[in-house]
Amino acid sequence: PRTSPFLTPGSHSSASSLSILHLRRDQHTPVILQPSSSPSDGYIEGPVTNTRFGSFPHSTLINQPWGSQIRASEVDTGSRGRKGWEGKGKKRKRGSDEIADEVRPETEEEVEGTRKAIKTSATGFVHILSPTPELWTSSLPHRTQVVYTPDYSYILHRLRARPGSVIIEAGAGSGSFTHAAARAVFDGYPALSIQDEGIQTNASAEPALPGKQNGKVYSFEFHEQRCTALQSEIKDHGLEGIVELTHRDVCTEGFTISNSPPIHASAIFLDLPAPWLALKHLTRRIRRKSLDPSANPEPTTPLTPNPVLHPSLPIHICTFSPCIEQVTRTISTLRSHGWLDISMVELSAKKIETRRERVGLQEEGLRGVNASAANVEEAVERLREVEGRTRWFHEMEARKEKEQEQERDGAEAKKDGEPDDMVKGEMEKENDTVNGKEKEKYTSKASRLASIASRLPTRKLYKEGRLVHRPEPELKMHTSYLVFAIFPREWSDEDEKEAERVWGGRE
Ligand code: SAM
Fold it and tell me: Domain 154-189+210-287+302-351+478-503 maps to which CATH number in 3.10.20.30, 1.10.8.60, 3.40.190.80, 3.40.50.150?
């Protein structure tokens, strides 16, 4: 069977499989990596993904360890890689907006430092990540409102979703919840062998799930185009064995899938405008329609166990509604159908940002340089470069002063040790651009950077600065009311007798 990069991603990215390009925090691009086809298709580099941080031929993204930093192509791939080498030698042009966005400089000085640093850096970079439901939620193509990570992690926990569970979901919408549910119920992970690493586990103490079957998500969506789009994503993401999507109006037609084994779900999630209309299909016993259209249907057809619900497990349900009126209608219908333990929750999640503020470094002008560098080595290299330029600048200044002194003293113009014409030209250029305040700023900043560069190898940058934390004001989530309820397992006379036999004589 095909494996899913969401469930068993392995250690490296692979061809024909989904990867997530991490551009920067909260900005991700999902890409199905295409292997290069024959050069006759006009693509010399093969397929290319263009981002604001450069162009990335898929050949540079395939078979990379997850988490790797990938440098943008140095080739101008403006024509999406078509005959890419025609642009050889041209560096991709980067507008000042892009520079500002990439490193998020905050002060004028940082912007200036960043510009200088970027000029010396050839291209941008991204990190390649293995797909997770969280990354997919933040990068998926939105066809509807979606359920965000803070909500679905709480919902799946309250629904008791775990490997081997069977979940019903309606409507599927953009598939954000679907992916999270698929991961939660997947039971094909290889057995853990952490004991090999000397860690004690109590894995054997975990009770087996009664009536355990292969974990599955039965998903329903009545909008045809959404259903088709999600079906192809499920296929592309290797989730076909675990997610079964049906094109259906669940309020009128219910959840039974004909010509297939009973669903036997123990968890239900309804993200529908009128979830109360679907509840009549989720009772313990149902009256099946007669297959004979001439036969009198209800109420003469007998009640039979509902194949949608697990026969011997309590059923956990969650409905997700933005309005309190929807909540009250859902709750009164749940009550009338015998659901118990009904409660409503509204989540208010907050991200707390924790970081060190490099107060000292910011003052010294390092921050702009370091933020734009791909790694510490690059930062050090740039600082050394700055240091070299500083030394050259001071030498030029010293020579110039000497020359002026000689001129003042009426000495001969040409002497040994005088700069040749080329150096003189450079001096004049430097003089033109670096004068007055600008000169002062450049000199002091450059010497500060040079002094940092000399100290850098012995300093632990990550330990510098004050540790601060603050809640972030905005969190991307669609706030809704979550209604939870439980349908207890059926309790027959035989169950009662068995309970009496087992528990009767005890306190
Ligand atoms: N939970 C989804 C996600 O995380 O991406 C988003 C669901 S979206 C808000 C609601 C979906 O329910 C829509 O796509 C809509 O077409 C579908 N829907 C509405 N009524 C339905 C019904 N009676 N049966 C099946 N699907 C329905």
Answer: 3.40.50.150
